[in-house]
């Protein structure tokens, strides 16, 4: 049904999206919590930094990642020497690019849902003897779950569509960094490939649609539970 | 278990300076909205930090700003029931009830069935809070607080959000708790009927200050507390100034808009400003300026208004220039003297209370 190129691009995109969301979720939750509840100097600066990938040209973000995570970049060198992990021109690098690009969207969605949690409930939990971490784990986080889910969906969708930062950072290597959008772009460069481009484009749309539907179903179930 | 609290808290537009001690089973924090009741209960439960002062519960120091002690809410062992219930919407009634037992070694899960029976929650255990009525929510909230193994239960306007019927449904449970569990309670309310029904100790709050604290019968019989207790105004507060001191008789002349009073001079200095509290029950009425009477202060006043209060009593509003006094006499006296509004009479002041509740007997 799918050609090897299509199958490669699809599984790669899904794998990158999965890892990008999984790795950025804890970071996004922490940032969202700090931004929603924290009262400290530099909060606005932090908020702006988080939003930076949203407003920068993706090429610039990709270039920044290249500088930081490249083989000779400060973080890249550290990852290589301590963990033997090389991210430059690997699918892991594509996942990092997708995570960074998706982070602002995830933080925004999660922050909104955290802000909607009634602090009175957290107070009540503390009054019942729950330490702070437990209040967060048993009250705040479960009540913000729909927002968490929305954040993950946004991050995943962003990762499926990510192009500029990814191609700048990890280039276009079939089977390693050639995600669906990059595969579409590559095919567009080839003459008389209209049918193949259309197939990939439809595949990409189908994946996104399934993701949105699944999230919609889960959110509905969560809501029914708490709204009785 | 005794509760001893002395705290000050400054916020823009609001100052709380409260101090009271209570060893009662049910201590009511009573006052109008905005009097500082909820602020005070938040200082007690630890959700607010006082600028200065201390809070002690039994032999435990919960707050002492001098010693730098502040026990956080989760370690105070004070169960709180809020006006809005604050049940956790993602947990069932059972989950809500057992929440505190996850974190407290003092909590006893075996108590669950006992508390559930006491509060009549058997049929509700598997429901989510969204499917409970207001009264049911409050019963669950009470049960949840009890099951966390508290040493003190704070009920912060627990019935304020309920209609009269639901209130009547919850009040017997609260009485049951008081009589059955022997758990000390602090009951925050602006509803006199609830307080009278439940409390044995009354702390009357007004504008962030404790106006009165003590056994409920004693505080309630003080008519000077009329405005705060929600009754018709039953006392007069007058801003006065010390005009002169009569050292020979040990008396001070106090001037106020419309007249003067003579009170014992001890400690007063000329020019001093003070607020006088003339309680309605300390004002008697004579048809004309009396002679042959030990009372020093007889003020010529006009009756502005008369109102029958409770059985056998009449309250009079008396006008003296711009100053208003209140007198409380028996209906028999009012009838015998033939008192009516507009009449000029003499107000005999039996005693005056100063700022800090220092009474002066003027007979």
Describe the structure.
The complex is a heterodimer of chains A (228) and B (363). Chain A has 228 residues and is mainly α. Helix content of chain A is 80%, strand content 0%. Chain A has a single domain, classed as MetI-like fold (Orthogonal Bundle), CATH 1.10.3720.10. Chain A has helices spanning 4-37, 43-55, 58-69, 74-83, 91-115, 119-127, 132-143, 145-161, 164-170, 180-189, 194-227. In chain A, helix 5 (91-115) packs antiparallel against helix 8, helix 5 (91-115) packs antiparallel against helix 9 (164-170) and helix 8 (145-161) packs antiparallel against helix 11. Chain A starts with a helix and ends with a helix. Chain B has two domains: 3-221, 3-Layer(aba) Sandwich (Rossmann fold); 276-361, RNA polymerase II/Efflux pump adaptor protein, barrel-sandwich hybrid domain (OB fold (Dihydrolipoamide Acetyltransferase, E2P), Beta Barrel). The chains are: A mainly alpha (228), B alpha+beta (363). Chain A binds chain B through residues 118, 120-121, 123-132, 134, 138-139, 142-143, 225-228, and chain B through 45-47, 72-80, 82, 84, 86, 88-90, 99-100, 102-104, 107, 127-131, 144-145, 148-149.
